[in-house]
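Please check our next protein.
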Amino acid sequence: MATGIRAYFGKYLRGRRAMVMPPDPPTGARASRRQVPGLRRQELADAAGISVEYCTRLEQGRAPRPSREVLTALARALGLSTAERDHLFRLAGELPPAPLAPDSEVRPGLLRLLHGLDDTVAVTVHDGRLEVLARNAAAAELFGPVSSAGRYRHNIVHQGFTATARHILGNEGADRYTRWATAELRSAMGRYPEDENLLSLHAELSAASATFRSHWALGDVAAERSAVKHLRHPTRGWLSFQTELLHDAERDHWIVIYAPAG
């Protein structure tokens, strides 16, 4: 780490240590008087499995870049949240750890926002595994009921290769969507390479769809986050929408907004 970065890292580490409640003394032991709030350096060093001398050098900005193992141990010892842990990693010049899986729950505030737009704008939420987690009434009206059967009925990639998607998108729109969805699957498998559901979805589409095999051979990785789409509404006919994808990085959720394009 550069000198300035080491100083920021050390200051953050000291500040977080000062905010941690010290451990209770053993039963029957006399509690010693503390001159400063939070953990002592020795207590943090012991909890993180490092020497107190190394802990001191880190806090004073005199140590080289700590390893990812040390950063993980410090974050655990300090009880850091995911966002705080990621900040600690970035201050040390490291990429934060990749999530093992997307969060399974949509933020309550986001759900309230979705339902507040029920009568105006269609909104859906899917996770980093490409599974739809929520949609509001306007989206349900636009896309129709979700199939009640099938392992992948909530997966936006699998949905793109169905007759229903071709009806809603038209032939040209469905062709564009399947290429985009294939690229999304490649990206998701890069984030979660050992995910059984993604691997089995890839295997199923590879076996069943020549279109998927053709798109997969192109090697595309998803990048499009904004587009104009023409969709067939069940009662209002063809409509144009400006679609925008917004990412909640901490939960790995994607919010898709379908704003009328006029």
The domain at 3-25+37-91 is CATH 1.10.260.40 (434 Repressor (Amino-terminal Domain)).
